[in-house]
Amino acid sequence: MAVPSSVSVTPTASPLFLRENEVRRGVELLFFGYTRLTRAIDEGLAEHGLGRAHHRALYFIARQPDLPISTLLKILAITKQSLGRVLTDLGDRGLVETRTGNVDRRQKLLRLTPEGVQFEAQLFDALRNSLASAYAAAGQESVTGFWRVLEGLIPAEDKAMVVALQRDI
Amino acid sequence: MAVPSSVSVTPTASPLFLRENEVRRGVELLFFGYTRLTRAIDEGLAEHGLGRAHHRALYFIARQPDLPISTLLKILAITKQSLGRVLTDLGDRGLVETRTGNVDRRQKLLRLTPEGVQFEAQLFDALRNSLASAYAAAGQESVTGFWRVLEGLIPAEDKAMVVALQRDI
DNA sequence: GAAGATGGGACAGCCATATTGACGTATCTT
DNA sequence: AAGATACGTCAATATGGCTGTCCCATCTTC
Where do the structural domains in chain A lie, given as residue ranges? Predict the structure, then answer.
């Protein structure tokens, strides 16, 4: 309480008491930032009777058409059963379709239907509005720092997965 | 697919197709970064039979001792009933205690017990390890950018709340 | 001092999303 | 032919949200 209210950049190595504040600030901003960003799409999802779990699947299928289910399972890090329910819902609504893999016929490759593409794009618009305005307010240099810190939060064993997602950008 | 795999900083205003990639990159890094950070404390919570909802309450009570319940409700943005369950669990385990407010006797002010302080500190250690190493890898300039972008994601009406949290740093 | 607003607690029931464990089938690999 | 892998499915369970309703204590306002 009696500590000076400096929340500014610490140019050199921080003493421990400042380091804690920097960490708490990151924890809080991540919490609020993440929850507010996801909230931006809830309304659009609710119109179709879907939840955030459906959006996560929709998002990554949009990102990598012909994604095998096993890959999506690794990305989302949930169980087959949980994903199964989500994919059933998306299939029932005509947003996602599967086809048998041609190199491995055991695989089912996921992709969006035209309706799915349109719906995902609509949801993405909301995300873009939020993130693009945050990017613009912060400036491009800040965006680079934003990415760098977040990359540092991803454990080494998961990094390949994220890189693969962004490989074809 | 045929687009060059540049994920580097775009120095000036981005053409639209790059803007989308920048946004998708942010969405993905936020998703993976946030989920991996929260995963860092699951084990410690499970030892007490608690979940993430309990940690969120614990965290903000640690952050602002003598927090009234109404304020915590605004921070977490959940219903009174949902929070009530969480606080009951924390109280039963002797981690959180309440006392009647002295300016407004209707209020119950929340604070951690000594055991609660110790437990929260233990969980915070896991968060610190993750975030501090990400900070160190990215560098202080990146940390500033990280904060700036996340601040831009918080709607104006919620900003005062976050600032209040960080006021006494 | 009475009326209304506010802070908090509690009951009942519901929903979304995740979990574990077990088992079955088709297909690929060796 | 044997084993591993990809996917589907059944049953049961846990967590963490939600709505609606009602209650009590206390503060504020007229």
Answer: 19-138
Query: What are the b/e assignments for A1-35, b being 16+ CB within 10 Å?
Result: eeeeeeeeebeeebeeeebebbbbbbbbbbbbbbe
Kindly determine whether residue B147 and residue A29, on different chains, have CB atoms separated by under 8 Å.
Answer: yes
Per CB-CB distance under 8 Å, the chain B contacts of A127 are 23, 27
Among the partner-chain residues A5, A6, A130, the one whose CB lies closest to the CB of B153 is: A130
Strands (E), chain A: 67-68, 96-100, 108-112
pLDDT score recorded for residue B142: 96
Distance, in Å, from the CA atom of A134 to the CA atom of A33, rounded to the nearest integer, reads 10
Query: Cα–Cα distance between B153 and A138 in angstroms, integer?
Result: 10
Residue to mutate among A125, A127, A141, A169, with most B CBs inside 10 A, is: A169
CA distance A90 to B75: 33
Give the residue from B17, B135, B26 showing the smallest Cα distance to A165: B26
Element (H, E) at B68: strand B67-68
- Concatenated DSSP letters for B91-132? HHTTSEEEEE-SS-TT-EEEEE-HHHHHHHHHHHHHHHHHHH
Interchain CB distance below 8 Å, A132 and B19:
yes
> Domain B16-137's class?
mainly alpha
pLDDT in tens, A134-159: 999 999 999 999 999 999 999 998 99
Contact (CB, 8 A) for B128 and B107: no
Task: Provide, in whole angstroms, the distance separating residue B68's CA from nucleotide C1's C1'.
Answer: 29
Check if the beta carbon of residue A110 is closer than 8 Å to that of residue A72.
Answer: yes
CB atoms B127 and A22 under 8 Å: no
Kindly state the DSSP code that residue B79 receives in the 8-state scheme: -
CATH fold group of domain A19-138: Arc Repressor Mutant, subunit A (1.10.10)
Ranges B23-27, B113-117, B165-169: which has the least confidence: B165-169
Nearest to A127 among B27, B147, B169 (CB): B27
